[in-house]
Amino acid sequence: MAVKIRLARHGAKKRPYYRVVVADGRMPRDGRYIEQVGRYNPLTNPKTIEIDLEKVDEWVAKGAQPTNAVAHLIDVARNGQPVVEKKTKLSKKAAAKAAAAAEAAEAEAEADADAE
């Protein structure tokens, strides 16, 4: 029996919330699992990662294989590093507005400097 430590998705549509579970590899993603060893919420800022590392170590010693995503979460939980947030790309309109606002602020600062 191939035992895996993986994420089981819960939560509403477009509002994911994951449980870190130990499950038989033949079971469905959100199906029956052996034990829950943690939780992961990607929607909070910063992302919430709660993993019982002692239980994970016990299961790994028994031969359980963590998936790539769970292995990354375990590393983050062990090292205490915050998860790197992806930068959101501005739309062309938003970038143009930001540039115009920056130019206006710069011009206003120059006018104030000239007045003094």
Core attributes:
116 residues; five-stranded mixed beta sheet; 40% helix; alpha+beta
Provide structural commentary:
The chain has 116 residues and is α+β, with helices and mostly antiparallel strands. 40% of the residues lie in helices and 28% in strands. It has helices at residues 53-62, 68-79, 92-115; strands spanning 3-12, 15-24, 35-41, 48-51, 65-66. A five-stranded mixed β-sheet has the order 4-3-2-1-5.
* N-to-C CA distance: 79 Å
Task: Identify the strand order in the major beta sheet.
Answer: 4-3-2-1-5
> What about the largest sheet?
5 strands, mixed
Q: What percentage of the residues does DSSP assign to strands (E)?
A: 25-35%
CA radius of gyration is 23 Å
Q: Roughly what is the average pLDDT, rounded to an integer?
A: 89
Q: Which consecutive residue ranges, at least 5 long each, have pLDDT under 50?
A: none
Provide a count of the helices: 3
Helix content: 25-40%
Give me the oligomer status.
single chain
Written as H for each helix and E for each strand, in order along the chain, the element string is EEEEHEHH
